Fold this sequence. Notes:
Number of domains: 3
Domain AMP-dependent synthetase/ligase: 65-483
GO molecular function, one term: ATP binding
Largest sheet: 5 strands, mixed
Strand content: 15-25%
Distance between the termini: 35 Å
Protein name: AMP-dependent synthetase/ligase domain-containing protein
Keywords: ATP-binding, Nucleotide-binding
CATH class of the largest domain: Alpha Beta
Oligomer: single chain
InterPro entries: AMP-binding_CS, AMP-dep_synth/lig_dom, ANL_N_sf
CATH architecture of the largest domain: 3-Layer(aba) Sandwich
Amino acid sequence: MLRITKAATRTGRGVLRLTTSAEGGRIPSSRHLSGLAAPGTVVETGEHMVDGLLEFDTIHDVQARACAQWGDRDLFGTYDNGEFGWMTYAEFDEKVKLARGVLTDLGIKEGDTVGVISNNRWEWAAVAAAAYSLSAVMVPMYEAQLPSDWSYILNDAGCKTLMCANQDIYDRASAECTKSVPSVSSILCFDAPAGEPHSFKTAMEATEGGGAGIVAPGAADLANLIYTSGTTGKPKGVELTHANQISNIYGTRQIVENPLDFMRHDDRSLSFLPWAHSYGQTCELWSLMAHGAGMGICRGVPDILEDLQLVKPSLLFSVPTLYKRVYDGVHNMINETNPIRRSLMKNALALGEAKVAAENAGGSLGGFSAMKHNALDGLVLSKVRDRFGGNLRVGFVAGAACPPEIIGFMDNIGIPVCEGYGLTETSPVVAINSPEARKIGSVGRAIGGVEVLAVDPGDNQPLPTGSEGEICVIGPNIMKGYHNKPDATDEVISVLPDGRRMFHTGDLGTVGTDNFVKITGRLKEQYKLENGKYVVPTPVEEAIGMSRFIMQIVLCGANRPYNVCLIVPDVDALKNELKLDGDITVADLQSNPDVLKLMEAEIQSNSKSLKKFEVPQKFHFVNPFTVENQMLTPKMSVRRHVAITTYCDEIGAMYGDSVVTDEERASA
Length: 668
């Protein structure tokens, strides 16, 4: 077994020397992909095109060259009066020039930081592209964050100017900046009507800087300070360079045999993942732009299903929640519909599963089964696909583990879903399943130029293939560091003897002999029961959370005799199942014996793959975890410690006491 020689380093972590097939930290370029176009493929040409793919070194290159190459194509779609109107690449390029003029007029120079508090919209992208064209740095924030979070980020980043989505955010941010953010000298509002002094529209109309000079960034220059919302403590500013994010675009191209099939020029997505997060920004915004594709900008989570019908995306970048929403909807329909329709739906899904199994084995459905599948596909499965707009060829999912049952369900209805894995600190993609090579239950193989390994969290020694350890990453996608936090940076990055840098993710997982990566939990979330057995809560929560009656779940049990859980129930699903009338509260459900009996059965039914000691013995219903009540991060991750602290009395009552233990708080 390879041993790691301990050496004195600033990080205090072990230093290791590894032989790797990765490209030594270089950004994998499409120049290395020549000759891969399929026979008959129409390969576009242009000044910066190689083998039909755009070449670039910075995000500024992506925007400028894409707009020059595909000027007449649709780029951004925005909802207006029942339909989506589209802005072309050329029109967007003009907006970027004006936005560059606005930033220049505001005194933004190379290295300055520009804050933006906004959901996705073309103005967000224009300000970002304009900032990059001045070698300035974007500092994106979420509308759902607290004003105190905004002020902390603005101060830590030293932002000079701030852009706000609407008047409400402008008012709250202005008050916060006046009180405690001296670095911000100007604030503009995207939605403010033209003529208002704080209007972004007015500033664009007034600027004489439409021809403001470009100060092109270098690949090593900072592009973004993305603040991790964090499940504990203050947010940390992740410093991502242009090279970091560009390496992700090139690296993901290499997951398929023919990169021209990964993202196509005629692809379209529905954009609802926040660009303030690296997943939405790198994987969707800049990647789609780099391939000449378009994206409709979703109005918001409540409107996703309607907007899918209007945009009809061919690609979808999502978290598991959307797919589970459709999965639960279909299974609720199966349970509530008449016997004939129920039989048709079950048969359609079963035949879809048989078709997938046959194709995975290198064959196909034959004879009568194929005829039945074709008939039921038209009657049933196509209607389910229509919920996604009817044009979806592949979905990508990350941000949280996607249960295999949901990926299998999507396969069975005819939409392959590729699960990936990454972190803000890795720009974000580390590994991803491809449409050509998927392993359900894994997060795929490392992207081009990236190496993934599992190490012993105790001594940092690399573990044998297939052994569970801390997942570590080597490659050009690793962040520069945490802004103003060298000690925190040193905690997660080791410098290897050959100069390469290794990022410690804090996630538990394995790397198989086939190089597929599997994430099994979070190192810091692991806790020990009173009997000494270790529990990783995430897999338990994922298994039980597959119930169509459960919306959210938090498992706990550190230093306790058994596990218990907090459950956010799907009230409507329970009402329909048990024929409950009237307004039903969570408290009503907790006192209803039929509901409790059903939920106990659901927990047992969904715990068959779990060890006996992992299964929660008791549960308590609670209200939804939200960003507003601080139990969700803006990227929809549960703040476990906040939920456990908030419901400490309820947790204690499940153990026969009234106060949660200090150990349980510490392990949250």
